[in-house]
Amino acid sequence: MSEPRLQFVQCLSGRGLHRMAYWEWGDVANDTVLVCAHGLTRQGRDFDVLARAMLDRYRVVCPDVVGRGRSDWLADPMGYALPQYVADMVTLLARVNARTLHWVGTSMGGLIGLGVAALGHSPVDKLVLNDIGPRIDPAGVARIGGYLGQARQWRTLDEAADAMWAISTGFGPHTREQWLTLSEPQLKTAGDSLVPRADPQIAVPFKATTPEMATAGEAALWHAYDRVQCATLLLRGAESDLLARATAQEMGARGPRARLVEFAGVGHAPTLVQPDQVKAVREFLLSP
Length: 288
Known about the structure:
- The protein has helices at 48-54, 82-96, 108-117, 138-145, 157-166, 176-183, 203-208, 211-227, 245-251, 275-286; strands spanning 5-13, 16-25, 32-37, 59-63, 100-106, 124-130, 187-190, 193-196, 231-237, 259-263.
- It is of the alpha/beta class.
- The chain has a single domain (5-286), classed as Rossmann fold (3-Layer(aba) Sandwich).
- The longest helix is centred in the last third of the chain and has 17 residues, at 211-227.
- The radius of gyration is 18 Å and the shape is globular.
- The two termini are 29 Å apart.
């Protein structure tokens, strides 16, 4: 079975340099590149199934956004925000040197992709937004805020996987094997325990967001969305508490007029592990 190469790129923040890890699949000479960007507390190995499904056409690059996975943690937690993430991805794109660039982003990774695609002269040719849009439902935000940044440790992978599943049921049905495979890269060893790889300080800017900041952020995201010019696919869990169907429909009527595909029995967010989800992404990316 194909495995990725772990690579690193130096990125700049207000406190100096930090290393961002990324997982690279496929032929290094292939200049048709698919970037897959993960959600708020996740990491790049979330996309192993999708990456393997796309290797016949793409070099697949799956970054660990700073503060997650194998990437460094920021000295200033207020840097855990979209401007830093977009800047880091621009640095990564310079490294991978793609002739054709497609982007798949789940939740936060979709907002990062939106930020990159909205830039002038953006290299993004096709964009997949997975259960995310400019307007984020307060119910989903409250749910995430209920667990974000909590100190956690477990004795075994099974125990950790059970705890993570308790806050991830919106991902929809998974076999035990699928869930363990998604869970293991989330963890690292600390003494005789397993702990999350993500920096708990990611919660600091999230919890510092005021209603006024959220309103301004939504307006900025709609402005960015309306600037996107590439073909765009919007995936939505039919039971999502983060992306309302009305928002999805509005995204289909303005800006790049995203095509909507919904998955029954799934909330926030589809993991792109199930065959129907992989098929939807593949068909869109490979269509003329």
